[in-house]
Amino acid sequence: MRFHVQTMTCGNCVKHVTEAIMAIDPGAKIDADIPARTIDVATSASPEAVTQALAADGYEASAI
Ligand SMILES: [Cu+2]
Predict the structure, then answer these.
(1) Ligand 1 centre distance from Cα of residue 46 (Å)
(2) Which of 18, 20, 49, 54 is the most buried (most CB within 10 A)?
(3) What is the pLDDT of residue 37?
(4) Alpha-helical runs (H) found in 25-64
(5) InterPro entries per the record (predicted)?
(6) Distance of alpha carbon 42 from alpha carbon 35, whole angstroms
(7) Are 12 and 59 in contact (CB under 8 A)?
(8) pLDDT one-digit tens code per residue, 8-58
(9) C-alpha of 39 from chain center
(10) Residue 44 — φ and ψ, nearest 5°?
(11) What are the extents of the domains in the chain?
């Protein structure tokens, strides 16, 4: 699944986003595109769970 993360602007953001998703699914695979501000996530978690985990870490994400 793919998400747009508006405030993911640098590698440090990617680290935070990755950690937030790994906290709900340690087996998740995350591929981030910083210029596009998108992430491709391979996870067994629901899109809603990913969105909530990112929101809790201060990153507003929307499934695209
Ligand atoms: Cu950043």
Answers:
(1) 25
(2) 54
(3) 98
(4) 47-56
(5) HMA_dom, HMA_dom_sf
(6) 20
(7) no
(8) 999 999 999 999 999 999 999 999 999 999 999 999 999 999 999 999 999
(9) 6
(10) -90, -10
(11) 2-63
Top-tier CATH class for 2-63: alpha beta
User: Distance, CA 48 to ligand 1 centroid (Å)?
Assistant: 23
Tokens describing residue 46: 């629901």
Q: Tell me, what's the pLDDT at 21?
A: 98
Distance 17 CA to ligand 1 centre (A): 10
- The span from the CA of 6 to the CA of 11, in Å, is 14
**Amino acid in position 1:** M
Residue 10 Cα to ligand 1 middle (Å): 4
Return the pLDDT at 55. 97
CA of 21 to the centre of ligand 1 (A): 16
CA of 32 to the centre of ligand 1 (A): 12
35 Cα to the center of ligand 1, angstroms: 12
**Amino acid making up residue 9:** T
